[in-house]
Design a protein that fits this description.
With 174 residues, the protein is mainly beta. 4% of the residues lie in helices and 63% in strands. The strands form 3 sheets. Strands 1, 2, 5, 6, 7, 8, 9 and 12 form an 8-stranded antiparallel β-sheet that branches. A two-stranded antiparallel ribbon has the order 3-4. The chain has a two-stranded antiparallel sheet with strand order 10-11. The protein is elongated.
Length: 174
């Protein structure tokens, strides 16, 4: 695999922005001769339709040969974003973070020279957050995430997994 990464971190030198940082990273992974198993029936149908086992009378899919297979080439391209804030306060140390991963490309080429098949529709943008206040042996805070829909096909007409939001409350004492 070849991984190309570039990123930047910004911290402004002003009293008002002390403790803030913003980072953006671009990641491109280029896998060759990857031995893998696919995630969904749609991916098998798109990339390896001969692995679908069909009823002879109706043509309906009744099974899938899910043995690992060689994917000639796979290209994954993402952007990662992160906003951090850290500050000491009279109440303790405050740490907050928001991150997001945005998939821009997920292409598989099953045999050399073939056209790429995208499975970008299976990779939703995901946002996560956390905020914690710690003082001495105790800390408390919240965290959570949001994930947008993932779809059963490129047409994006049928939802595979609906969007979700999750919140978590944390408290600890050491």
């Amino acid at each position: 695999a070849i991984s190309d990464n570039i990123g930047v971190v910004l911290e402004l030198p002003f009293a008002l922005t002390k403790g803030f940082s913003l980072s953006v990273d671009h990641i491109r992974l280029n896998y060759r001769d990857q031995i893998a198993s696919l995630s969904t029936l749609q991916e098998w149908a798109d990339l390896f339709p001969e692995r679908l086992i069909r009823d002879a009378a109706t043509g309906k899919v009744i099974g899938v040969d899910t043995r690992s297979t060689n994917i000639s080439r796979q290209i994954v391209e993402t952007y990662d974003y992160q906003l951090n804030y850290q500050r000491s306060t009279p109440l303790g140390s405050l740490n907050a973070r928001i991150t997001a991963t945005e998939y821009r490309r997920v292409d598989a080429i099953r045999i050399p020279g073939a056209a790429p098949v995208s499975s970008l529709y299976l990779r939703p943008t995901r946002l996560s957050w956390q905020a914690f206040l710690g003082r001495g042996p105790s800390s408390f805070g919240v965290s959570g995430f949001y994930s947008e829909n993932s779809w059963t096909s490129v047409a994006r007409t049928t939802t595979l997994l609906s969007s979700a939001i999750e919140w978590n409350v944390h408290a600890s004492y050491d």
